[in-house]
Amino acid sequence: STNRTFTMIKPDAVENGHIGGILDKITSAGFKIVAMKYTQLSKRDAQEFYAIHKERPFFGELVEFMTRGPIVAAILEKDNAVEDFRALIGATNPADAAEGTIRKMYATSIGENAVHGSDSDENAAIEGAFHFSGREIF
Ligand code: CMP
């Protein structure tokens, strides 16, 4: 059934000029953009968004990275959105990502991996609501 996922084009991909390429991959794969903004996370935003990872050794590095420059945040709609979007972006580590996936094409490392994709319908709703109010979703 039609549902939604949440994505961010991360600071590395923005810095490297890949916003257009990534949005083209997303829309060409049949995802409809129902909300989108260009923004930058504060330290507090990133700590809250990634709270589930706060005990991980890479947490500090993750917060530094995700706050170092602007991102594109978006809510995407498609049949089977969460699963299909994770297939489109590829493995967390671009070295393991399949040919043609967004991370294979645009990511540089496991930390600086170009894009975020929600891992469940529940988290997609939480993450979307973190960035967008009801009147920003179309
Ligand atoms: P993502 O899966 O979107 O959300 C959690 C992020 O933590 C992940 O992308 C990476 O950016 C980052 N991450 C995961 N594992 C590592 C790691 N071993 N070293 C650095 N960053 C990591």
TrEMBL record:
<keyword id="KW-0546">Nucleotide metabolism</keyword>
<feature type="binding site">
    <location>
        <position position="10"/>
    </location>
    <ligand>
        <name>ATP</name>
    </ligand>
</feature>
<comment type="function">
    <text>Major role in the synthesis of nucleoside triphosphates other than ATP. The ATP gamma phosphate is transferred to the NDP beta phosphate via a ping-pong mechanism, using a phosphorylated active-site intermediate.</text>
</comment>
<feature type="binding site">
    <location>
        <position position="113"/>
    </location>
    <ligand>
        <name>ATP</name>
    </ligand>
</feature>
<keyword id="KW-0547">Nucleotide-binding</keyword>
<dbReference type="GO" id="GO:0005737">
    <property type="term" value="C:cytoplasm"/>
</dbReference>
<feature type="binding site">
    <location>
        <position position="86"/>
    </location>
    <ligand>
        <name>ATP</name>
    </ligand>
</feature>
<keyword id="KW-0418">Kinase</keyword>
<feature type="binding site">
    <location>
        <position position="58"/>
    </location>
    <ligand>
        <name>ATP</name>
    </ligand>
</feature>
<feature type="active site" description="Pros-phosphohistidine intermediate">
    <location>
        <position position="116"/>
    </location>
</feature>
<feature type="binding site">
    <location>
        <position position="92"/>
    </location>
    <ligand>
        <name>ATP</name>
    </ligand>
</feature>
<keyword id="KW-0963">Cytoplasm</keyword>
<dbReference type="GO" id="GO:0006228">
    <property type="term" value="P:UTP biosynthetic process"/>
</dbReference>
<dbReference type="Pfam" id="PF00334">
    <property type="entry name" value="NDK"/>
</dbReference>
<dbReference type="InterPro" id="IPR001564">
    <property type="entry name" value="Nucleoside_diP_kinase"/>
</dbReference>
<keyword id="KW-0460">Magnesium</keyword>
<dbReference type="GO" id="GO:0005524">
    <property type="term" value="F:ATP binding"/>
</dbReference>
<dbReference type="InterPro" id="IPR034907">
    <property type="entry name" value="NDK-like_dom"/>
</dbReference>
<feature type="domain" description="Nucleoside diphosphate kinase-like">
    <location>
        <begin position="2"/>
        <end position="138"/>
    </location>
</feature>
<comment type="subunit">
    <text>Homotetramer.</text>
</comment>
<keyword id="KW-0808">Transferase</keyword>
<dbReference type="InterPro" id="IPR036850">
    <property type="entry name" value="NDK-like_dom_sf"/>
</dbReference>
<dbReference type="GO" id="GO:0006241">
    <property type="term" value="P:CTP biosynthetic process"/>
</dbReference>
<comment type="similarity">
    <text>Belongs to the NDK family.</text>
</comment>
<keyword id="KW-0067">ATP-binding</keyword>
<dbReference type="GO" id="GO:0006183">
    <property type="term" value="P:GTP biosynthetic process"/>
</dbReference>
<dbReference type="GO" id="GO:0004550">
    <property type="term" value="F:nucleoside diphosphate kinase activity"/>
</dbReference>
<keyword id="KW-0479">Metal-binding</keyword>
<keyword id="KW-0597">Phosphoprotein</keyword>
<dbReference type="GO" id="GO:0046872">
    <property type="term" value="F:metal ion binding"/>
</dbReference>
<protein>
    <recommendedName>
        <fullName>Nucleoside diphosphate kinase</fullName>
        <ecNumber>2.7.4.6</ecNumber>
    </recommendedName>
</protein>
<feature type="binding site">
    <location>
        <position position="103"/>
    </location>
    <ligand>
        <name>ATP</name>
    </ligand>
</feature>
